[in-house]
Design the sequence.
DNA sequence: TATGAATGAGATTTCATTCAT
DNA sequence: AATGAATGAAATCTCATTCAT
């Protein structure tokens, strides 16, 4: 919004400013929603944090709902892109390594936006009920799709059982969540990413002790 | 003049009515909160559903917050009691069977109050932030304690690895949640309880195919 | 309400009980209104203090307004009776002594019910506006009448000027009030009655120093 | 972006409007509170009278209590300023004349805001009880201080006795009140200010007839 | 007659949204 | 395009009063 470099070119200065302001608002919204809670946060707080007037919020987002949805989409998109990159990059790696990498990357991302993701999860529970959130539902399904692709690949490679495969995607997702919640509750302790290996071990080999003859 | 017994030879009629009304309100609240969402639900709706006047709500619960908290406590208590009964009853069973039983019982309970538990989870995410919810936090810790005892017992019996045991309780909890969320999203499909066996298999033996020599 | 002595006679036991309960309620109301303020006090508090149920209040007083009014009347009546007794008893005394006696008696009564009289004054200010309070207005006019009689007598005896006599009654009343308010603000200090002599001196001879040749 | 001056070349227009609105609300509040009573008046009525929406009230005053307190402060301040001006202006006048002037000025002001001052007095009686009103108490003490200064000066000049001086300030204040109450009850009659001379006569020389040798 | 739970109108307060500047 | 004061619908909570027991 104040980058001096953007003064040189003028092709679509307006447009670039719009994007910057929009980002600034989304970033402010993330912090405010995460700090105060999705419902307790007031538009005025978001505006104050973003350094703009309330009215400006409405120049960029139709209404509160839209702002929340956009924020979700924004972060979700990042996760999905990360996910895709992992999958693409690890196309030729052994499945175990790929899975570990995916889990690590995702948890790393979660760690960076921990507070917001907690809020995001909170609102996911609402999804069954509200209609207006189909955009958000969409994003979630997309994320779910990523997990399903990972699982599908694991099964295809013979690295995972096919019989219970139906529950694996949501189970995997749930394990990631559990790591986050764990990190969230024991605030300021070890980041969730450090649990990546243990999670993958649990997911792939279970909690049962390995048979003696490893 | 103030002894409740002296009222009109109705030793505890009043008292019994109080309990009934209190229950009616809590039941109504569960439905309304689950249907409309924790925040969207209005006290008036709860009252209407319970068949009482708004004021009556406040004769039983100090304020909205207290109602929500009481509802949480009410359901949580049931879960914990179920849990305890399982643990007590299965004291001499093999660990695998015990775990399966526990998971099945819990998911069954979840199925019966599905909508509300989704709401409950939603609000659990808030816990890091609000202080006033220590009662609720207490309940959650208690539940967590139950899972820890199960895990501890599994480890003691040699049925579970000790190395990653730290993450097992929340992982187990998360897997249950995933089953619920799964059931919640695919509304009106198979109950979560049917996933019990698959979940336990995954938790104990992992997603990896069993070695050939089954 | 529980006086064992009243069990002996039965001529109008019911009636006597009614009076006792009525008194108990009025006494409780005085304390509660004085402690919590005329508006902040709740009927429930009055009932609790009186040791009866809320419903009982309404068996004795039509509504809140009536209770307040009755309380006013109750106390006012006492004041007026005191006043009358003084006037009657002092019929043959010199005016100065009579006035001093009246002031002393009234302030003494005020001291005994200080808190409530403060509340009472508070509500007197409302009088210009509310219609339903004509009963109260009546009582006040009656009290005013007492003061007017004292002044009239003073004038008749040549102990007071006739020219400004119109303002003397309310001035005298105001001086009494000032003594009470003074006592009220400097809580728990000397009782208002001790100011009686000074007040009368001020009222009769003014604040100006006496001419040297007394 | 936040400097008020940068808005739209309207350096202090906003600010001026704020002051005007604030005044409008206070003026409306005075009328409404005085007309309907301090407690009976509803915020909605104040808003309607001020010609703004309810919400606007809360943009200017945190809550009802604050509005009332601000109103008190607003009027009290005016009285005190009037008082100070009198005292300053009359520094070299004989005490009798000064006192008369003070009384006349104050009663004049009272006359102009009669209804509200009655309400104000009403609430003064509450002062002993509520703590949150320290601001108001402060104002009252300040006013009392003014009266004390007048009395001190009178005593110093030998125009008033020193022995009973302790009760003079509140007595003087009470006499003013009595004039107001008198005017209030005999609504729409002669203004209180006309009683100024009689009041001062009473206060300085008492109710007793002057000794023959005038 | 006493009781006290139920009632529900009504008051305060909040905050997403609008719109004149 | 940005601003921020104004708006007013809506939600929570209170408490005088009623009435079945």
Sequence:
């Amino acid at each position: 919004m104040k980058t001096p470099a953007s003064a040189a070119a003028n092709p679509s200065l307006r447009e670039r400013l719009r994007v910057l302001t929009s980002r600034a608002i989304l970033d402010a919204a993330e912090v405010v929603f995460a700090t105060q809670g999705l419902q307790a946060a007031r538009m005025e707080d978001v505006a104050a944090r973003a350094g703009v007037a309330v009215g400006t919020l409405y120049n960029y987002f139709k209404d509160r709902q839209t702002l929340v949805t956009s924020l979700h989409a924004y972060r979700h998109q990042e996760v999905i892109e990360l996910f895709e990159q992992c999958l693409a990059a690890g196309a030729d790696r052994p499945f175990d390594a790929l899975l570990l990498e995916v889990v690590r990357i995702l948890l790393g991302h979660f760690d960076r936006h921990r507070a917001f993701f907690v809020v995001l999860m909170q609102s996911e529970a609402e999804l069954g009920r509200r209609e207006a959130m189909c955009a958000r539902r969409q994003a979630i399904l997309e994320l779910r799709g990523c997990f399903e692709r990972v699982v599908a690949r694991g099964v295809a490679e013979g690295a995972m059982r096919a019989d219970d495969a139906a529950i694996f995607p949501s189970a995997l997702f749930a394990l990631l969540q559990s790591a986050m919640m764990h990190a969230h509750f024991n605030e300021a302790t070890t980041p969730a990413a450090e649990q990546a290996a243990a999670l993958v071990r649990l997911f792939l080999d279970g909690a049962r002790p390995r048979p003696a003859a490893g």
Remarks:
- Residues 1-10 of chain D have pLDDT under 50 and may be disordered.
- Residues 7-8, 10, 13-14, 42-44, 54-55, 57-58, 63-64 of chain D lie near DNA strand E (CB under 10 Å from a C1').
- Residues 64-89 of chain D form the longest helix (26 residues).
- Chain D has nine helices and no strands.
